[in-house]
Each structure stands twice: as structure tokens, then as C-alpha cells.
């Protein structure tokens, strides 16, 4: 059984690699083929030079993705059939009892090794690629300070939660996976309250939105949509990047709307209002709630599957770990986390289909309560400022893009502009 599983997994891994490479090649070819012509919908809004820069930026990111794929696959092979995970098991077995200390140490080692492998790629991305195209504003000192803070958060929050999960797996019998799932849900819901109040301020400065036209428009928009009182903040995103954004976060008293300072610098007040109206559209249609429910349901399914694999010797042996380790909760968690991405990519088109549908709904809501023209202008400016490609490959977009292609999105919004029927009420 173990050998059959190994053969199947090798075939899946090769298919995964081939699919990832084929999608990257298609994206690079499509972007290059359209580099010298701005799509008609943007011809009066985005200059050719900016469109060409976006094409070059996209292709540079693709080259980095090839390297990231190589690191990912190499890490998988090293940990599994290369014997890395077995070596870590032997080390922690010799230095910690077969209990929580062993499990936490094993999994923490895997997380640390993965993080160390990511550092060179992230350094290149931030200080070479992003700098080359004028986006980086981060200093090396800030980069490593962020890493230190992330490590401390992992120690203070991640390790205790990991210990709790391992304890539940050992103490709750056959249906341990249901208890772990309940703990996972509780932890994530808690983070919705904790993150905006205590974690996000560790990395960025949040200041109340100043009085002025933007604040007046935002307050009026919230009132029109019956969204109640929400705290409005500006985040110093410019400390790290020139990219702009805005988002909602938190529940209850932690609810807040956050604008990147780079967004406020680049957009006019009507355009900022339209972008916020789009975000409100997600809230109006309960997209976030649906996504959370979907994630929780899939996590329940994955944990139930892991519950079946935990005591399957062929699962461990097929991945390069001795069959005698069957029932080892920590090893099972690591092996499962390594294997799942190879299969999860097949679900990406479905998830992104629903995500793009949500984006269209949010755009329609923004056109109804604000201005379609202002949203078109804002999106065009953001596409240009963020060097987002206007001509993605359709199949690549299907697998990777949570937002609709730029031309499709603008075409839909054009039906809501002045002189056209208003979008239907939702």
C-alpha cells in the first residue's frame, strides 16, 4: 500500500509542477504579446509607458515564481523522501519526551526551516524586484524588525495554540479532529478581535482620519448604507511600499475602516468614496461571512480526512517516514500540510470563480450607492499605480486571480455609468 501511495504521489507532484510551470508560461506569453497595445477600455486613462511597465513588472514576478516553485518542491522532497522529517523526528525523540515538547519542537523546526528558506526570496522580492519598479520603501532594518516581531508572535501565540492542538489530538480519542476544529474556529474568531487592536499596531501606525472632504463623504456613505458608526483610520503603508489599498477589519468594538496613506495621496475624494463603497458592498452582501463559513467547512473536511490518515502506516511510510510512526500526531500534521497543497490547487478555479462573482457584486453595489464613473477612474489609477497587468492569461487568471480581469470589470461598470440604466437594488 505504501509503495502504491508513493507512486501516486510522485505522479501528483509531477502534475502539480507541470501545471504550475504551464500556467506561468502562459501568463508570461500573454502579457508579452499584449505589451505594446493598451486595451481599448483603458486607452484614454493609462499611457502606453505605464502599461509596458506593468507588463515588465508582471514578467519579473513570474521569474521569481519559478524560483519559489523550485524552493517549494525542493523543500518537499528534502523533508519527505530525502529523509529530513525522519531526521528531525530522531533529533527531537532524543532530546524531548514523546509528548507535547516533542511535537511542538518538531513542528516549530519545520516552520523555522520554511521561514529561513523564504528569507532570500523575500529579500530579493523587496529590495531588488520591488525597488527596480519603484515600489519599495522598506529599509533592511525594518525588514528584519518585522521578521523578529513575526517570530515573537509565533512564539507567544502560535506555539501555545499548537500545543493545545497536539494535546487535543492525544486526549480526545477517535473524534479528536472535531475538538481541534472547534478550537481552530475559536482561535480564528478571537484573532478577528485581537488583530486590529493589538497585532496590526505592532507593524504599522494607525491615526484617525482627519476632518475634511474625504471624512465627510465617508460618513455620509456609511449613513446611506445604514452601516452605523465605524472608526476611520489611516495606516502608514508608505513605510514599506508605494502600493495602495483600503480594507475593513474586526468585529464588534474592534470594527474599523483602514485607508493606506498611499491611497489617500493618489485618489480624489470621490474616487476614495467609490473604493470604500466597493468594500462596503462586500459587507452588504455578507461575502466575508460566507468566506469564513466556507473556510471553516473545508477545514472540518481536511481534519476529518487527517483523522483517517493518522493511524494509516502507508501514509507515513509512503512519505519517507517509518511506518512505526503511525499515530504520531506531530508528524501527521506536518506530512498532511505538505501534501494538501498538491491537491488543493485543483480547487483554486472554483474558489476564485466565487471570489470574482463577489467582486462584481461589490462593484454593482458601489455603482448604486456612489458613482460608477468615480470607481472606474479609481480602479484605472490603482491599476496604473500598482503596475497591475491589464491583459492576464485567462487560464492563469482562473487559477490565481481572486479579482476579475481589469477589462471585464470596467466593461461591467460601464453599464452603470451616466446615460445607462442604474444597477438594480440589492
Could you please describe the fold and organization of this structure?
It is built from 16 helices and four strands. Helix content is 69%, strand content 4%. The termini are far apart. A hairpin with a 6-residue loop joins β3 and β4. It has 426 residues and is mainly alpha-helical. Residues 421-426 have low confidence and may be disordered.
Keywords:
426 residues, mainly alpha, four-stranded mixed sheet, 16 helices, 4 strands, 69% helix, 4% strand, disordered C terminus
Cross-sheet strand order for the largest sheet: 1-2-4-3
The proportion of strand residues reads under 5%
Number of helices: 16
Given helix and strand content, the structural type is: mainly alpha
The major sheet is characterized as: 4 strands, mixed
Query: What share of the residues lie within helices?
Result: 55-70%
Write the element-wise H/E pattern from the N-terminal end onward. Answer: HHHHHHEHEEEHHHHHHHHH
The outline comes out as globular
Question: How far apart are the first and last residues' alpha carbons, in Å?
Answer: 54 Å
**Poorly predicted runs of 5 or more residues:** 421-426
Number of strands: 4
Radius of gyration, in Å, reads 24 Å
What is the residue-averaged pLDDT?
A: 92
